[in-house]
Fold this protein.
Amino acid sequence: MTFNSVEYAVFLSAVLLVYWRLPRRPQNLLLLAASYVFYGWWDVRFLGLLVLSTLLDWVIARRLGATERDRARKRWLGLSMASNLGILGFFKYWGFFVESGTEVLEALGVDWAAPTLQVVLPVGISFYTFQSMSYVIDVYRRRIEPSPSLVEFATYVAFFPQLVAGPIERAEHLLPQYGRARACPDRDAVESALALILLGLVRKVVIADTLAPIVADGYAPGATGGAALLAFYGFAFQVYGDFAGYSAIARGSARLLGFELMVNFDAPYRSPNPTVFWRRWHISLSTWLRDYLYVPLGGNRRGMGRQLVNLLLVMLIGGLWHGASWTFVVWGGIHGLLLVGHRLWMLRRPQPPARWSHPLRVLLMFHAALVAWVFFRAPSFTAASDLFAALANPLQGLEAGPVALLVAAAAASTLLDRLVVAGGDEAHLVRLAPVGQGLALGAALVALVVYAGGTPVPFIYFQF
Amino acid sequence: MRPPAVTVEVPPPRARRRWLPTVLAALAVVVGAELGAAALGPYLPAPDLWADAATATKVAQLDALGHEAGCVDVLLLGSSMTRDALVPARFQAADPSGRRAYNAALDAAGPVLLDRWVRHTVLPRVEVGTVVIGLASFDLNENARIVASALEAHERAPYSARGLANELEAWVIRHSALVRHRGELRDPVEVVRAVRSWTEGERAARPNPDGIPGVLAADGHGLSRRALRYTGDPGPQRFVRDQLLNDFQITERSQEALARLVEGLQRRGIDVALLLLPVTDDYVAQHPAGAADQARFEAAVAAVAERTGAALVRAPSLPEEAFADTHHVNGAGADRLSDVLPGLLADADVGRRC
């Protein structure tokens, strides 16, 4: 059941219909049940894993809250980290570690028959594991109290609008919302929620799904230079439309249920440098990595050298978080190097850059991100190098149709960023003048009618 | 330690909202797009609304028949074997009473697909007196890949898919040019081409009752194999083994599907004849158990005929020269079968007119 399906529309409507007739506590129970149904829809086998992870962290956080002894607290924290990362490591990285280990051993001349296990990746495991971990860490840091209610905590971990692909919420932001009475959203909230859902659908169905086959063609073996060029640019808008679309639908769905989720994207391709880019792209992950990895590693408190190492390390781990492949590590590494380079540049030239250079810097940053996206999208280094090689002849086999589609999709994406999204608030649409709203609504409906009939493309971030 | 309060970031409420301009503006865009699509529609390529072009053409032919005569005396049903084997014009010429016939056979159509096709598409368009269902062993093979994929395509096509949601979608497609042409409108090159054709007044081709040149005649019979002659190529034999007779199995279910088709027609007062089509020895040899499987098939059809009271008609054997491949007849074979069919039906005492 994906957000861009009829099933989800029916599911959300049914939940809303019952939900707003219940008092708070039964509301939470309904949300939990609905979230488990939503997750079980993918693969009921992994529901147990989600429940196990939830129970474990709830119990551990309660223990953390019950003791003041530092050693005991560290032990409980360690147990939570080990179990969460152990589950994540096994299900997501087992094959990767075994394969990489075998290659290293082979290079060293050691003949080792690796144990072969076909481990299926449970959908959303990276997202809910990080969300659950942040709760335990915050309890350990005494930023929040452990939740007395298992139902509330379980709903926080499994909340269906953001369970599968985020935004990765913080306990201090989302968890208290389960404990409060929720008033049925007023007209403004409903309007802005529906605007978010509509925008999300346009981003996903109209922009991302239109570009998906063009990008796939460019990454196919033997692709022409023209196809590679279109894929090179197209993937940037595809992945943005796909993920920002998902996040917008998640936020809109949550708002209809009386919850507020964090903003996850803020026009990232208008960033003039890597630091700003990471404040605008997948904000819930970048702030998670900052708060739970970069800062504990020392952040910028231990000198410039250590700061740069920390930056690089965090981005490498951030890359690996996305997928169990060295290509993702390289993607993270490129962004790490960009951040390091920008930090060093800022050291040499601390004065703010000239205003006229802003468009150039945006263009430069965009192209740096494009290069990194190649490693994110390519299934292997060979595929990535094939694409770069094909780019040497960018006009070969370039066709007018896909070019027009790419230009239109890029323009639509930019237009949405400029006209509809303001300061990360994608519900800005409802603040437009009535006629402007109507025109935008009509255009969105027409675009959805035209593009919704194609083959549904799964959300890219579901694989993480 | 209390968790910090959470701010809900909804836009500030406004004193008074004016709905009408918003709704009217949205409506204007949607209506404008609909009108634009309706104007451009005839210049865009034909949308894929049926399983394939041949099906779309047969629907256009049935519509024309419905408007002209409203009735077909003898409807020929079956797979591509029937489509290629029976020429309605020759049948009509050979028939002493000159009954009007139409060949409504579809590619790889087994009894389940034929049942849906005839119930939902053929009979709502034309009245029928007699139905002749041409059959070969793969029609009753429970595992025939080609039959399964044809059924899947039929069930996926917007105009032949069943179920409330699909039928609702089909209704919307019929009434909205924007929805009907959305596949073509997604391609900017097609849109530009259509605008150019519009200015030049050149409409795009549409499925029409005249058929498809070299593929389908105006009376629904197949043209593509008429000039071919079977030479014993291993290619077609492999195809028959892998796609038609793979895991050959005639089950209760496949017989039941045929019986359901026959009984559905009979309930509407239509005479039904089951016609065993001729095949080459090479075709028979491709069955896992060879002639024994072919015999099982013939017995299964006979059992359905006995149970339903439908007439069982065996087409005459044809020499190998009358075949285009292992199981499709060529032009000579089709002419011969079409000439003898009126007599065969008369012998079986079927032939109700509409």
About this structure: Chain B touches chain A through 41 residues (CB under 8 Å). The first strand of chain B starts at residue 71 and ends at 77. The CA atoms of residues 50 and 289 of chain B lie 36 Å apart.
